Amino acid sequence: MSGNTLTDRYVHEVVRRIPADQRADVADELRTTIADTADARGAADPEAAERAVLTEMGDPIRLAAKYADRPLALIGPELYPAYIRLLKVLLTTVLPIVVAVLVVIEVLDTNDVGAAIGSAIGGVLTVGAQMIAWLTVVFALIDRSRHRDTAAAEVDRWTPDDLPELRQTEKRDSGAAAAVAWNALVLALIVWQHTAAPYRAGNDRIEVLDPALWSGWIWPILIGLAGVVTLEVIRFATRGWTMLHAGLYAVAELLITLPLAWILSQQKFFNPAFLADVNNGWTAPDTVYTIAVIAVLLVSASEIISRFREARARN
User: Fold this and answer.
1) For residue 201, what are the β-bridge partners?
2) 112 Cβ contact partners less than 8 Å away, ≥ 6 residues apart
3) 3-state SS, residue 270
4) Could you give phi then psi for residue 205, rounded to 5 degrees?
């Protein structure tokens, strides 16, 4: 038999796209299936029967994806509805707030309505594109991680027992969406106020936060915020938290809380030039910063505890 038959070519296209340790078994299985199906038709023309069987089996790329247990779509149908819901939340809450801030700053800075409109359009396009891009990347990674996990362990397979109560689902989704929106907004504003220096003090444009923070302390906060956003997206996209997710959330939350508490305790949060211009020489008492530190620690502890409770309730 020739080594360049339709079956040979079809099998080759399938097995070259799957892991090496599966290729021999899959090749034998495909050849047997194709030959048996073609013979069962009892066609007078074996080549025509072979072609008909291969046509019914479909695109070898899709068949290879099934054998490799690898999705072809960037975001699969299980996560796509959650992806769209969260994207709508971000585009209808965070994006308008960011654009509004840009417009207000532009109007106060230039007193030019045309420039403000241009800033709004640029903000919608730039910030909106970033939101869509990063959310898509996160959901694509979650989708592939979920696909591998469900293929590897029976315990992760969905059963009707995994169906949450309706009110719990609505509460979880709204809470996760709000957390994503809030933390993403805070992250974007921190970076934006550093790059844009939006506050005008006399003839100078200055940052609101202390520029010295960018020499060290702001970075764990930014990493923690990015981690919290990612984990909250996972929370929104999946059926809640696992203990691993809760542990990772605790690490991300501590990356935010501990540096922030130290910064507040040292009264190094705001730019001294900004405070001098805004307060006109008035200095906040130490009690204000002490209360802020306590509040930050209590809120962080509450958030971490609630994540572990949710993970424990799921398990």
Assistant:
1) 204
2) 106
3) strand
4) -100, 125
In whole angstroms, what is the distance from residue 200 CA to residue 71 CA?
Answer: 51
> DSSP readout, 119-135?
HHHHHHHHHHHHHHHHH
Q: What is the pLDDT of residue 172?
A: 57
The pLDDT of residue 160 is 45
| pLDDT tens digits along 105-131 | 666 666 666 666 776 777 777 777 878
Considering Cα of 238, then 239, then 245, then 250, what sign does the dihedral take? positive
Report yes or no: 273 and 205 within 8 Å, Cβ to Cβ: no
3-state secondary structure 35-96: HHHHHHHCCCCHHHHHHHHHHHHCCHHHHHHHHHCCCCCCCCCCCHHHHHHHHHHHHHHHHH
For the stretch 67-114, pLDDT in tens is 776 665 677 666 777 777 778 877 777 777 777 777 776 666 666 666
Q: Which residue has the higher pLDDT, 116 or 45?
A: 45
Residue matched to tokens 């209360």: 291
Q: How many CA atoms lie within 13 A of 120 on its CB side?
A: 12
Neighbours of 223 (CB within 10 A): 14
List C-alpha distances in Å: 46 to 3, 6, 52, 80: 16, 11, 10, 43
Q: Mean pLDDT over residues 42-66, rounded?
A: 80
Q: Which pLDDT belongs to residue 153?
A: 39
Number of other residues whose CB lies within 10 A of the CB of residue 200: 13
